[in-house]
Structures are given as C-alpha cells and as structure tokens.
Amino acid sequence: QVQVVESGGGLVQAGGSLRLSCTVSGLAFDDYAMAWFRQAPGKEREGVSCISLTGNSKYYTDSVKGRFTISRDNAKNMLYLQMNSMKPEDTAMYYCAASDGYCSLDDDGRFDYWGQGTQVSVSS
Hints:
Layout: E1 3-7, E2 10-13, E3 18-25, E4 33-39, E5 46-51, E6 58-60, E7 68-73, E8 78-83, E9 92-99, E10 113-114, E11 118-123
Parallel strand pairs: 2-11
Antiparallel strand pairs: 1-3, 3-8, 4-5, 4-9, 5-6, 7-8, 9-10, 9-11
C-alpha cells in the first residue's frame, strides 16, 4: 500500500520561510519523479515544482523561481520544498505527488500517487 504524507505547513509572515517534507512508502521511491502542487481556495490546482528520479533535473513554476527549492533524499524516501521570501499569494494547500513518468507541472494526470496535503498560510 502506497502512502504519501506531507508535513511542515503552517502560518508564516510575508518574507518568512517554511520547509515542507513528504515521506513516501510502499513504492520504489527512486523510480518516481516527485512534485509539489498547490491549490488555493477558489483556484485550480497548479504545479509548483518537480524533480527527476535522480534529482539532477528540477523544474519550477515562474512565480516561485528563485524563492523555492525542491530536493529529495532517495535513501530516506523523502521529498522537500524549501520556501523562502514567502508571499501572501503562496497561501494554499500543498500536495506531494509521485509519477512513474516524466516530470510535469502542467499535467497532474501524470501523477499516480498523492498525499492529503499540508496547509500553508502567509500573512501580509
């Protein structure tokens, strides 16, 4: 049984930082591209960042480039998202997702497994 569990969300002031973590079990972690998606109230889910199987390739949506950093530890089956210089528009539920295909920020249908999400709120 595959389990994907996010943690690390919370309330932070604008300009602050948070680090999200995602632990995955029940699959061969290093066979999966991993991504973070987010969904704000009243908005569609959007891809935030994706990392390839080995971690050599990383992709970011334009609005977080230079502020967020995705990383993974294949030995620990862990995915991370370091979020710096946070803005109120970063407020959303953040989801961790696993894909046995290519990284994609535009097609969440490529992702086979999803966590329940962790809430991130940024106050102005």
